[in-house]
């Protein structure tokens, strides 16, 4: 029987915590809450299964550029990985296995999407309006992730195109690309993975590159049955591998904070291009004109060979307009195509969750972010948004495993939730002066990093030119800052009575 959208599920229940999203962060949040003895929480997921970005992205060749040993939960190592760098199907299977193993799956209400989360300052409760009704909660964890909303450029004439178009994050598997004339727009992380997969099938492939990325060789290999059996019998191999990968990423992070350190690597990669690409014009076209690390570093072994195939043409310009089935680049080149695939990334500077959250002053977060750029305290708490936490929020990203970052941040968040409960706190809000001082310091120290000074325009910088994404210090510093929830950073209201007049869950 379908649930009435207007049903108020919270009529006799107030949840301690409400988790929005069952991707890598939401799954970890639920597991960690259970471990701390929390059982009165609710988790909703808009889709039919867990997985987040690994559920949504199913394009050919989709995989992770962080080794599987580190791109996995610290509390759930796996010996099932078939490669050093896992592909999407295995990662999704892993997330589903972990959710089942820790009995999280039965707790998730699937096909239930958050429509609006509004703070009720009278009752000190969150009112959660969803596609399946309304809920009340004392605290909220927004685990919706930073990579959720694909973006497609609104090019002149797009409506006149008679062929098929789709974004890589919404791959249309019903379309057979065999023998088709295909245009790919963008050369980011997704494009360099799916281009080598479709190139052998298509009649012709035109790749529109606005900015040449840094593409480094990927040290990938198959593990094989014996390798998986060995890791299963000797867990120390897995833990040692994990530590080694983490150490190498720390070196990369040091270089990103100190761009001059990466200059020898840049020189070596450019020399390697002379071996990888014989055609001088193509080599010049794919040689980046900015410092290594300014934009996301990409890893692939089959991308450059695909660009050199006889049926592939790289256009070192963006696509500017469309006339029927003719796509036109910035330099005026015209190409007839049957299919356009958008490899144009995601809207990460303004996460969709901002459109759904109403703060204590009745303001929509997305409206505020348009004026001031997204900002948070340690990527977790927002101005005038009490009793709520954001996982992988603004200025918390370092070059590491998103899973590891989420775990670290969730330890801080759950420490805060425990204090709210143990001290009978009804309202906890980050102090404006603490938030402002933190973000001023973050922006000051970002100025010397490669993200800001590397000479590129990346998704780290929003339309205001402000770096809303990167963490300017080491991962160790981030972990230290997140190791303890400091109540002195927050304004606190102690609960004097059950203001909601409801039965506590």
TrEMBL record:
PANTHER family: FAD_NAD(P)-BINDING DOMAIN-CONTAINING PROTEIN-RELATED (PTHR42877:SF4), L-ORNITHINE N(5)-MONOOXYGENASE-RELATED (PTHR42877). It comes from the Bacteria. This is NAD(P)/FAD-dependent oxidoreductase. SUPFAM superfamilies: FAD/NAD(P)-binding domain (SSF51905). Pfam families: Pyr_redox_3. InterPro entries: FAD-bind_Monooxygenase_sf (IPR051209), FAD/NAD-bd_sf (IPR036188).
